[in-house]
Amino acid sequence: MQEQLLHRIWQRKRFDHTKLCTTSGKKLKIIHYGNYNTHAGPDFQNGHIQIDGQNWFGHIELHINSSDWKHHEHDVDAAYNNVILHVVYKDDKVVYTESGRILPTLILEDRIDQQVLEVYEKLKGSLDHIPCHPHLQKIDRDKLGLFMHSLL
Question: What is the 3-state composition of the chain as percent helix, strand, coil, each rounded to the nearest 5?
Answer without folding.
Answer: 35, 30, 40
